[in-house]
Structure to design on (423 residues):
């Protein structure tokens, strides 16, 4: 009877446990979709088009009044949410939505790349992160001035401020092109960074400097003469520490050299260069759309328009201009707007005609030379570590790994797997 009761209890409790997982997944997807939709709406509303007005006018024009009262409607919706949820949930969801771009770029995308187990993507991500932080100060300054200028163009009607903002915006665009052109010929510094990191690691594993709590972590010359079978526990631990870090460093050098070689042969850097050109093209279109929009605000007579244009119309206009096509909605009819039109055509020639050639040929060859330099240095560091192991401990790599396995060193299994990978 007790067994039957226990079985019934287990059977009754089992659905409750399994039901939590679908609920948790459902809440996760709801939170993810909510964050994506909020940020799509913010970006679209600020930089592209009044998407809410457009949708209401297309779906149900009689409800256009909702736009005028959307702030109060939002407050009401938040009040209802406060009534039916806990404060902790509201706080966590709000923080997730607010910081979603940071979560996306620093957690979601890296974890997705890790799950794909593609070392080419991982190296591309590492290169992008390092490049970002190397130019963080300059990027932050130019981005700040760019956003402030764009905000002034959208929000201010004073003609003097508008002209100043337009000049700043065009200056940043021109500076970006000059900077990208210099980067094509200038060494990226990635090879020096890799060499610096592995040089420091090599010096560390060859010395294993003692920490305050461990006065001596390596064997002295007399202790090295003792066979490992005759070593006491402390001496054996020192031997394991010195040997396994040397072997691990050797394996890491050869492993990274092989993966960089694979990354080089995949020509993934060309795809990365093509993506950077695409982003520069988008940046150029957006910049000229804001400049033309600012000119229209200064004087609508600079353009001939078929109807009152929105900012999205200027994006369409700028996109068409860069590919040498015209649209009937907007036509440049005055010297300021015509000069901007000609300037955009020059940027298009430089971007597609010259910059693509330079990136695909010059930059590709430069990065190949830098990668070869890193691969050569890593292989040399690996050989130096193996030579130091033979000289100091009188073991080669294979013998050291076998000895570490017998001694159950905590890195032994990892070293075995790495050895299989680099063969």
């Amino acid at each position: 009877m007790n067994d039957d009761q226990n079985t019934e209890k287990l059977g009754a409790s089992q659905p409750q446990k399994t039901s939590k997982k679908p609920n948790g997944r459902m809440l996760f997807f709801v939170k993810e979709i909510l964050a994506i939709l909020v940020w799509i709406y913010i970006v679209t509303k600020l930089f592209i088009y009044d998407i809410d007005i457009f949708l209401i006018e297309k779906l149900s024009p009689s409800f256009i009044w909702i736009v005028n009262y959307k702030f109060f409607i939002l407050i009401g919706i938040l009040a209802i949410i406060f009534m039916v949820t806990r404060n902790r949930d509201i706080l966590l969801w709000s923080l997730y939505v607010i910081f979603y771009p940071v979560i996306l770029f620093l957690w979601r995308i890296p974890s997705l790349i890790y799950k794909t187990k593609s070392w080419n993507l991982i190296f591309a991500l590492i290169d992008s992160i390092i490049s970002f932080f190397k130019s963080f100060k300059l990027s932050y300054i130019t981005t700040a001035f760019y956003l402030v200028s764009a905000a002034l163009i959208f929000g201010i009607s004073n003609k003097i401020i508008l002209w100043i903002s337009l000049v700043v915006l065009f200056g940043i665009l021109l500076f970006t092109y000059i900077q990208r052109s210099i980067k094509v010929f200038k060494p990226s510094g990635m090879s020096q960074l890799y060499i610096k990191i592995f040089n420091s690691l090599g010096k560390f594993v060859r010395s294993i400097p003692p920490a305050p709590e461990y006065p001596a972590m390596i064997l002295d010359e007399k202790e090295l003469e003792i066979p490992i079978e005759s070593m006491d526990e402390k001496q054996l631990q020192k031997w394991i520490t010195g040997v396994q870090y040397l072997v691990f460093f050797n394996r890491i050098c050869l492993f990274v050299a092989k993966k960089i070689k694979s990354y080089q042969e995949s020509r993934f850097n060309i795809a990365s260069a093509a993506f950077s050109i695409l982003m520069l093209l988008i940046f150029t279109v957006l910049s000229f759309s804001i400049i033309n929009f600012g000119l229209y605000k200064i004087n609508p007579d600079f353009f001939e328009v078929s109807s009152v244009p929105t900012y999205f119309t200027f994006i369409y206009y700028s996109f068409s201009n860069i590919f040498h096509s015209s649209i009937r909605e907007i036509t440049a009819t005055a010297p300021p707007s015509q000069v901007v039109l000609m300037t955009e055509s020059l940027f298009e020639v430089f971007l597609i005609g010259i910059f693509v050639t330079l990136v695909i040929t010059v930059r590709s060859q430069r990065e190949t030379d830098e990668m070869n330099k890193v691969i050569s240095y890593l292989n040399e560091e690996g050989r130096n570590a193996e030579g130091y192991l033979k000289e100091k401990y009188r073991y080669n790599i294979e013998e050291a790994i076998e000895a570490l396995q017998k001694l159950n060193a905590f890195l032994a299994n990892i070293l075995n797997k790495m050895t299989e990978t680099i063969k």
Q: What stands out?
A: The two ends are 62 Å apart (CA to CA). The chain has two domains: 21-117, 190-422.
